[in-house]
Amino acid sequence: MKPAPFGYARPATIAEAVGLLAEGDGGARILAGGQSLMPMLNFRLSQPAILVDINRVAGGGIIIEDAEGTEIGPVVRHAELLRHCARGGHPLLAAALPLVAHAGVRNRGTVCGSLALADPAAEMPACAVALDARLKLVSSRGERWVAADDFFTGIYDTALAEDEMIAAVRYPPPAPGWRWTCTEFARRHGDFAIAGLAAGLGCDGADISAARLVAFGVGERPVRLADAEAALTGDGVDAAVRALDDVEILGSGEYPEAYRRTVIGTLLRRAVAGLCSRVAA
Amino acid sequence: MSGEAHVDIACRVNGEEIVDRVPARLSLVDFLRHRLGLTGTHVGCEHGVCGACTIVLDGRCVRGCLLLAAQADGAEIETIEEASRSGRLDALKDAFVARAALQCGFCTPGMLLTSAELLADMPAPDRAEIRAALSGNYCRCTGYHAIVDAVEAAAGLKT
User: Fold this and answer.
1) B54 vs A contacts (CB less than 8 Å)
2) Which of A17, A81, A105, A139 could make an S-S bridge to A11, C-beta 3.0–4.6 Å?
3) ipTM of this predicted complex?
4) CA distance A193 to A181
5) Residue closest to B15 by CA, chosen among B57, B77, B70, B71
């Protein structure tokens, strides 16, 4: 099981990388961590003419923490961001990153690569939507910032044009009074989630004054649970779980729609119970 | 196919300077096994699922099947051969033998390297943490229980 032949380029800058994408005319692919691309190459599901290896672009591994939040470069590994967040970075990312794949994959796989792949069952896209992250997309034509909610357009489908790459992601800082968690159900730690939930609660004393709930593994892209958010702040967790009845959820043979809906309800109860106990303490 | 792309690389493998010219599509694990003869690193699934090809790249465990040999340029690589020779795995190896945490041995190099990284990051993991850390390494013989026992023993949690 070996990949088809391809060319290989190792640009030193993002400008050089997007130049190669433009020259490739659709036949060039960005190689970041390679934890999803390499399997696709080995299976020959993907047969690019040239790989543009961005692992050594200047500033690629940078993590910036400032008043406007956290900004990470295109080859920041999951494990690196986790170590950063464990020292006081965003609590949702700190909760979600240990759930991403396995140790050896987290050591190499990149957060921006996970966003670019846009697997609907992955944690990082859901967290980006939950946190209103913005993605910096760069091509030789220029750069633009896209909101995470606009970036994910379908199963493995994003707003990225053929000649664009993600050059950075910026997460706003956690708002005061908010608590965050990420929880998922998978058959084995590190597998893609059967269903998962990124959850944030805005707390006013012991009361929930605002909520942000984004599910993954249940739709074609991260699914914002707006009705459940509203129910949670007004009528409590039982009403929030009932509100899930109206959410469109994709089922599959092994995990039918009703099952996934039940799992999300359970995860919602657990997340709220966990976050509220933290508030009380 | 004519004119297959090649890449010049220089890296350090188990302390030895290596300079070579490799096909762009050659995986790092195939380079280690076939060009350098380091067959302690095993090739299982070739798509990043089984963990048998685990090596240490610039100090961190990674899957050798999901890296290109071309990407080794400038890197420091340690395989099971050097990790074992250095003695840093001795406590784990003894515990694996004592607990019968291996049968065919195919997964063992990856299990040992991944376990060593866990214990370096987290000196006293509980059983759930050990299972989570080893979740990316398949074993088709032991049923994992003995491996978790061995890592727990090596961590000094058992007497």
Assistant:
1) 104
2) A17
3) 0.95
4) 15
5) B77
What residues in chain B have per-residue pLDDT under 70? 1-2, 157-159
- pLDDT tens-digit series, residues A236-248: 999 999 999 999 9
Written as six digits, the tokens of A94 are 């700190």
| H-only helix segments in chain A | 14-24, 37-42, 78-86, 91-96, 103-106, 111-117, 123-130, 148-151, 226-234, 237-243, 257-280
> Using a CB-CB distance cutoff of 8 angstroms, which residues of chain B are in contact with residue A7?
5, 24
Q: What are the backbone dihedrals phi and psi of residue A39, each rounded to the nearest 5 degrees, phi first?
A: -60, -40
**HSE (side-chain half, CA atoms, 13 Å) at A133:** 28
Q: Are A171 and A97 a contacting pair, CB within 8 Å?
A: no
Helix axes B145-154, B108-121, angle to 10 degrees: 40
The tokens for A213 are 């709930």
Q: Are A100 and A109 in contact (CB under 8 A)?
A: yes
Q: Give the whole-angstrom CA distance, residue A194 versus residue A121.
A: 7
Mind listing the domains of chain B with CATH numbers?
6-82 (3.10.20.30), 87-154 (1.10.150.120)
> What distance, in Å, lies between the first and last C-alpha atoms of chain B?
59
Q: Do the Cβ atoms of B27 and A2 come within 8 Å?
A: yes
Residue whose C-alpha is closest to residue B153's, from B85, B89, B98: B98
CB contact (8 A) between residue A102 and residue B136: yes
Quote the CA–CA distance of A133 and A156 in Å, as a whole number: 18
**Rounded CA separation A25/A22 (Å):** 6
CA distances from A95 to A15, A69, A92 (A): 34, 17, 5
Model-level pTM?
A: 0.96
